[in-house]
Design goal:
About 45% of the residues lie in helices and about 10% in strands. With about 500 residues, the protein is α/β, with parallel strands linked by helices. The termini are far apart.
Length: about 500
């Protein structure tokens, strides 16, 4: 016997029957298009190229080289099997001490050793997704809110809202100032929440930004710290792209701002979310981190981590790898070098065909501007263009509306999750699309110009005839009037 939708809604929870996950949004629809028709250079050369996945695959050879040289790091090898029992048996939710020490050390290295991190404040979670939800549970109750500058990562709607009941309120940022966060915009968003009787519990930022690929400068970070301190709300800093910054200006962690002490701040209000998914390219390992300066948050988050622990097998491998300082130093430098080369090749390739991106120096993506290709400056037109890119150009790029961008025409395009050959195919597809779009725009402009010329010609002719009649009918006209005219 089947169940009707009504029965399902009565029998199951609101979470089970609702759509809070966001799986039906364009961001995830693009992934489905790729999954149903994935590109392959030989078996499916006309398939969809995945450019919606922010993944760093440019330095896996370095990882593989290390693994081959250090087989004892894995308990599933002959060399590491002697550790199998100790790693496989029950471990509490604090995590292996060597794992927390290695992660703290790595976080410091990624930030140029300008700051250090206390291993006892490292709380592990199932990826940054689990870390964000965990921090939301710790800081806010259902109905309360975080301010989030737009555009922001679409997954935040799932990570922070779906199961927690927390709201995300946009902080307006505009392309006119390269989407920078301003104090005025923060105050405006906070005031709107107050008027709507919504309690704001924190401000969530991503630095480096997803989807912009930009970093926050020192003065902006100081301004954010001052703002949250004055409002007595939390500051959650997503720094999962910290090691992807490949050129100046350099990445500045919120930890540096706190260390310098130039602005007053209650440290209990500051929390960092980190992971190894982007910087190391390990999204499948699900290594997420909450680092809080608040003892109560650390204690609560550690208990909550029971629902999303990192496997001890993974902890053991990561601890060994990240404790190898020589390898880590080499990896950080080489990864940034390769990201810079890929970013340069991709953006130059776009510029050669007249397509521009927001200037960026971090992340695994670019924020591409296609507003000139919209038939009209609306989000409906953006979605129409996105569908063309997905189904005809066969590229899975993510539309700005998925990131709550306030202006239509922006798209996030990932460039580090493919090999060089696939990237060149993607650039060629974009090139062909732009050329075709420019041709069509030229035809439309020509037709419009022709129509306008014909309209002006008719108007001019009509005006001249009317003027002739007026002169001819005038009693002062030097032209003899027709007898028929006089007879009237």
């Amino acid at each position: 016997m089947g169940f009707t939708l009504s029965n399902q809604q009565q029998l199951l929870s609101k979470i089970a029957t609702g759509n809070g996950h966001g799986e039906s949004t364009p961001y995830f629809d693009g992934w489905k298009a790729f999954d149903s028709n994935p590109y392959h250079p030989t078996t499916n050369p006309q398939g969809v190229i995945q450019m919606g996945l922010a993944e760093n695959q440019l330095s896996f050879d370095l990882i593989q080289e290390w693994v081959l040289k250090n087989p004892e790091a894995s308990i599933c090898t002959a060399q590491g099997a002697k550790e199998f029992k100790d790693i496989a048996i029950f471990q509490d939710y604090h995590g292996l001490p060597e794992f927390r020490n290695a992660v703290a050390n790595f976080m410091g290295k990624v930030r140029g050793n300008r700051v250090t991190f206390d291993p006892d404040r490292i709380v592990m979670s199932g990826g940054a997704t689990g870390a964000h939800e965990m921090i939301a549970f710790c800081l806010a109750d259902p109905g309360e809110a975080f301010l989030v500058p737009v555009p922001y990562y679409p997954g935040f709607d799932r990570d922070l809202r779906w199961r927690t009941g927390v709201q995300l309120l946009p902080v307006a940022c505009e392309s006119s100032n390269n989407f920078k966060i301003t104090r005025a915009a923060l105050e405006d968003a906070y005031e709107k929440a107050q008027k709507a009787n919504i309690r704001v519990k924190g401000l969530l930022i991503t630095n480096p930004s997803n989807p912009l690929g930009t970093v926050l400068d020192r003065e902006t970070l100081k301004s954010l710290v001052t703002f949250i301190n004055e409002k007595n709300i939390h500051l959650v800093c997503d720094e999962i792209y910290a090691a992807t910054v490949f050129t100046q200006p350099r990445f500045i962690s919120i930890a540096e701002i706190l260390k310098e002490g130039e602005v007053e701040c209650n440290r209990d209000l500051v929390h960092i979310v980190y992971s190894l998914s982007k910087d190391m390219g390990f999204p499948g390992f699900r290594v997420g981190i909450v680092y809080s300066y608040n003892d109560a948050v650390v204690n609560c988050a550690r208990k909550m981590s029971s629902f999303g622990l990192v496997s001890t097998q993974t902890q053991h491998l990561i601890a060994s790898m990240l404790s190898d300082n020589e390898f880590v130093d080499r990896f950080i430098v080489e990864s940034a070098k390769r990201l810079k080369a890929r970013h340069t090749r991709f953006t130059v390739g776009l510029e050669e065909q007249g397509t521009t991106c927001l200037k960026s120096n971090g992340g695994l993506f670019v924020w591409m501007d296609l507003h000139k290709h919209l038939k009209e400056q609306t989000f409906e037109a953006e979605m129409a263009l996105w569908r063309t890119i997905i189904h005809e150009v066969k590229l899975n790029v993510s539309p700005g509306v998925s990131f709550h961008c306030p202006e239509p025409g922006w798209f996030r395009v990932c460039f580090a999750n493919m090999d060089d050959q696939t990237m060149e195919v993607a650039l060629e597809r974009i090139r062909n699309f732009v050329l075709q779009a420019d041709k069509e725009a030229a035809v439309v402009a020509m037709k419009k110009k022709k129509s306008c010329w014909q309209s002006n010609k008719k108007l001019s002719l009509s005006f001249n005839l009317r003027r002739f009649d007026e002169v001819n009918m005038s009693p002062h006209s030097p032209i003899p009037q027709s007898p028929l005219v006089r007879a009237t």
